[in-house]
Design a protein that fits this description.
Layout: H1 5-21, E1 24-27, H2 33-44, E2 48-53, H3 60-68, E3 72-76, H4 82-91, E4 99-102, H5 128-154, E5 160-164, H6 187-207, E6 213-218, H7 238-250, E7 260-262
Parallel strand pairs: 1-2, 1-4, 2-3, 4-5, 5-6, 6-7
Helix pairs in contact: 2-7, 4-5, 5-6
The structure holds NADP nicotinamide-adenine-dinucleotide phosphate.
NADP nicotinamide-adenine-dinucleotide phosphate binds at residues 28-29, 31-35, 54-55, 78-80, 103-107, 137, 164, 166, 218-219, 221-222, 224-226.
Length: 270
């Protein structure tokens, strides 16, 4: 290598390293489960992680992460609260966000391992008042988050919006029952995940001209804390499922916009 070439290459590596390190992800519902694992893995990569949560006080999980990685920034944002979203939107005005990760969701009102805990989402005993909470959290929330932060995404290098959906939002496949039961469960969760997918397809078309890529994921069956002691066959560890999604996100281009993906990047049936 000539004396001239070497410093040029070192400079190029330094620029590339700086660009990678400057990347930013904003994650909703990042204090536990899949959201927390995304925060951990992006933080370990040296990214700036805007880790949002809806708690009244800072969750210990995020405090620990921020103590380990100074580029983790903890912010409060309940995605069903328009005022809280607006406050964070104003605070982050002008901050590029490479990946806007809509992860937060209302799945159920009771722990999964509580046998009669979800009658409010079963046909025959549906709680219609509860549907509002599901719509505000799972559909209006992500849409409002995108409306609020889309300028930040447009200003970034990656320009990517991800929604963590679910196989439960698929309308073409028979409802998949983790316990093997043929009786459909989680009506409100399933219906609002289908609506989330619909809203993200609209956004993909809306934002394509700006070079913004919008995708949905079924993350796979992931063993998270909120499942309690329940051991459902086939569930995988968060490290594995989220690692796969991050590698898939790394390879996305605008041509992928509007796709509903499995964690390995293959298509999920609508
Ligand atoms: N785990 C799976 O096997 C699986 C499968 C398919 C899809 N998913 C999807 O993956 C995502 C994460 O789920 P998870 O399994 O990690 O569940 P989880 O452990 O229950 O985590 C859900 C997260 O969302 C937060 N959240 C709920 N409502 C919110 C609101 N209004 N504003 C802000 N944050 C809110 C929760 O906060 P709190 O801690 O305060 O409640 C929590 O941090 C969800 O979109 C879920 O539908 C998961």
């Amino acid at each position: 290598m000539t004396m001239l070439l070497r410093p040029l290459l070192l400079f190029a590596f330094a620029i590339a390293g700086h660009a990678a390190a400057a990347e930013t992800v904003l994650i909703t519902g990042s204090n536990q489960g899949i959201g927390l694992e995304f925060a951990k893995q992006y933080a370990a990569r040296g990214w700036t992680v805007i880790a949002t949560h809806r708690r009244d006080t800072t969750p210990a999980t995020l405090a620990e992460l921020a103590a380990r990685y100074p580029k983790v920034r903890i912010e409060r944002m309940d995605v069903s609260d328009a005022a809280q979203i607006a406050v964070l939107g104003a605070k982050l005005k002008g901050t590029p966000i490479d990946i806007l990760l809509n992860n937060a969701a209302l799945v159920r009102t009771d722990p999964l391992d509580q046998p009669n805990g979800n009658t409010n989402q079963l046909f025959g005993t549906l709680d219609y008042d509860l549907l509002d909470d599901f719509v505000h959290t799972n559909v209006a929330g992500p849409l409002r988050v995108v409306e609020t932060f889309v300028a930040n995404v447009r200003a970034s290098q990656r320009k990517t919006i991800v929604a963590i959906s679910s196989a439960a939002g698929s309308v073409s496949a028979p409802p998949f029952m983790p316990n093997g039961s043929p009786i459909p469960d989680h009506y409100w969760y399933r219906i609002t995940k289908a609506a989330l997918n619909s809203s993200m397809v609209l956004l993909a078309a809306q934002l394509r001209g700006d070079g913004v890529t919008v995708v949905m994921f079924h993350p796979g069956g992931v063993q998270v804390e909120s499942f309690g002691a329940l051991a459902i066959p086939g569930l995988v560890a968060p490290e594995e499922a989220i690692g796969k999604m991050i590698r898939t996100i790394d390879g996305l281009t605008i041509e992928d916009s509007g796709r509903f993906l499995q964690n390995d990047g293959t298509d999920h049936p609508w």
